[in-house]
């Protein structure tokens, strides 16, 4: 009897100890078919999609929730108010710029009551509204307005910092603005404050444009790209959705193509907020407002107590997260909300889930995004939210452990650097394999040094050190064996 129990215990121990090797063998055997090699060079890659992933075993992609960090701006000037919206945040060297529509009362899109207001910051945390003196509103030039008396363009004026190489200083900033009636008109500015039309005629005519229409220069695609509001049924029918056009000069644009979202259910996406991630500009991030018309969360009594405009009590909204690697396709890895309305009842009013365009760095290990709060209410304001650097999503391993195997990739560089976090009991170990899944000598799991802690840029090491340069240019796979850990991003550095 004792001998049988001992044999059983020994056998169980062997099975548990061999679990990792068994999983590795299964992964290797399932990955023998030819697969496209990902060329990443020394580029940062985030785990917001499955582009780099061959197989997850006991792990999963996890969306992380931005954390509220307080009110940064109150929309309390007479030319601002509860219907201010379509915010754009730009980091311009050591200055942060914030642009938005100012509007105190609801009205027709593109009305003469709309203006474009401006705020700035040195750290992205404390914001001021400079007295610019450019336009007279409400009997004074003492205001923070950069565009006024220019209907319909203040309805959705959305600037960008033009990063195209060789761009003239007088066109450092550009913008698109307009409605279905006017089309989208192109603007330019040298200082981000004084704006002029690049031409009177619209540059884009095919679209509804009844939202924030955004654009940027893409180094990855070597062109300007614009994302703007269209409707799936045309003529304001069906679902609010997003279409895309491209241009080489910001004036002549391709015919719009409606974006695809993979095998996901249709939803009203009120904005797109698509922009290149500042640490990996080949990867476009989007934080659209998901709008649910007719989905009423507030009671009539709650809406009255909050002072919500009566026309904005019967819908609700939140923010979601998407990504794109160019072309006419978004990846919706996560259907769950990125930012929920939360316990503040004022954010359950219609259109109160709108994030600003732009995620910006606000510290060595922190980035910020901004969201409108209390839309259609007297106390409308903007809240800052924070995430760890690269921390939109991760490959997450539970306490029981799991693995990630990448597709074959080619890199340049000398060291593998990861952005990761573990619990005190957790860990990450990395094995390098050839394209067929065979562990490479010197870089096997047995050679790998255990990584524990919480680090934006941890150099991965094996018993022989961190130098992987002899494998540069070869097709390799990365096998991550993880326990109670998150892996956010990786890159190979010199």
Unreliable stretches (pLDDT < 50, length at least 5) are 1-32
User: Which architecture name of the largest domain does CATH use?
Assistant: 5 Propeller
CATH superfamily of the largest domain: Glycosyl hydrolase domain, family 43
Q: CATH top level of the largest domain?
A: Mainly Beta
How many helical elements?
2
Radius of gyration: 25 Å
How many strands, which pairing sense, and closed or not: the largest β-sheet? 8 strands, antiparallel
Mean pLDDT: 94
Q: Into how many domains do the coordinates divide?
A: 2
The quaternary organization reads as single chain
Keywords:
494 residues, mainly beta, Jelly Rolls, Tachylectin-2, Chain A, 2 domains, eight-stranded antiparallel sheet, five-stranded antiparallel sheet, globular, disordered N terminus
Briefly say what this structure is:
This protein is mainly beta and 494 residues long. The protein is built from two helices and 33 strands. The protein has helices at residues 2-30, 300-306; strands spanning 38-41, 45-46, 53-57, 60-63, 67-74, 85-92, 95-102, 115-121, 127-128, 145-147, 158-161, 173-179, 183-189, 196-197, 214-218, 223-231, 240-247, 257-258, 268-269, 275-277, 280-286, 289-292, 316-319, 322-324, 360-363, 366-373, 381-388, 393-397, 402-406, 409-411, 415-434, 454-459, 476-493.
């Amino acid at each position: 009897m004792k001998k049988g129990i001992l044999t059983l215990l020994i056998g169980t121990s062997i099975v548990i100890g061999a679990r990792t090797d068994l999983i590795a063998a299964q992964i290797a055997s399932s990955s023998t078919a030819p697969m496209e090699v990902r060329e990443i060079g020394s580029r940062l890659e985030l785990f917001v999609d499955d582009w780099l992933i061959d197989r997850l075993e006991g792990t999963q992609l996890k969306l992380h929730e931005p954390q509220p960090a307080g009110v940064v701006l109150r929309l309390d000037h007479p030319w601002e108010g509860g219907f201010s919206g379509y915010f754009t945040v730009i980091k311009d060297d050591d200055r942060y710029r914030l642009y938005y529509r100012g509007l105190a009362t609801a009205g027709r899109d593109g009305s003469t009551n709309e203006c474009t207001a401006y705020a700035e910051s040195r750290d992205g945390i404390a914001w001021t509204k400079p007295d610019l003196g450019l336009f007279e509103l409400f009997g004074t030039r003492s205001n923070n307005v950069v565009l006024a008396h220019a209907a319909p363009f203040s309805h959705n004026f959305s600037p960008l910092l033009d990063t195209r190489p060789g761009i003239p200083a007088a066109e450092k900033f550009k913008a698109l603005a307009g409605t279905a009636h006017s089309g989208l008109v192109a603007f330019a500015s040298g200082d981000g404050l004084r704006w002029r039309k690049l031409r009177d005629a619209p540059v884009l005519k095919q679209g509804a444009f009844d939202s924030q229409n955004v654009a940027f220069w893409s180094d990855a695609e070597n062109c300007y790209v614009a994302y703007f509001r269209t409707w799936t049924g045309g003529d304001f029918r069906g679902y609010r959705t997003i279409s895309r056009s491209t241009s080489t000069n910001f004036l002549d644009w391709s015919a719009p193509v409606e974006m695809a979202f993979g095998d996901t259910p249709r939803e009203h996406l009120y904005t797109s907020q698509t922009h290149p991630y500042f640490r990996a500009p080949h990867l476009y991030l989007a934080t659209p407002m998901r709008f649910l018309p007719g989905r009423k969360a507030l009671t009539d009594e709650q809406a009255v107590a909050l002072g919500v405009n009566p026309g904005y009590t019967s819908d609700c909204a939140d923010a979601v997260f998407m990504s794109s690697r160019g072309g006419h396709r978004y990846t919706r890895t996560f259907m769950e909300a990125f930012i929920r309305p939360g316990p503040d009842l004022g954010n359950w009013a219609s259109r109160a889930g709108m994030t600003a365009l732009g995620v910006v760095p606000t510290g060595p290990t922190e980035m910020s995004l901004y969201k409108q709060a209390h839309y259609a209410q007297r106390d409308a304001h903007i809240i800052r939210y924070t995430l760890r650097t690269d921390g939109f999503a991760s490959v997450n391993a539970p306490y029981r452990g799991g693995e990630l195997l990448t597709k074959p990739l080619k890199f340049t560089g000398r060291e593998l650097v990861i952005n990761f976090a573990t619990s005190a009991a957790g860990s990450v170990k990395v094995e390098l394999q050839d394209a067929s899944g065979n562990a490479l000598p010197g870089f096997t799991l047995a050679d790998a040094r255990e990584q524990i802690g919480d680090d934006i840029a941890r150099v991965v090491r094996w018993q022989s050190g961190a130098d992987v340069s002899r494998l540069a240019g070869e097709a390799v796979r990365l096998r991550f064996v993880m326990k109670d850990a998150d892996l956010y991003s990786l890159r190979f550095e010199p």
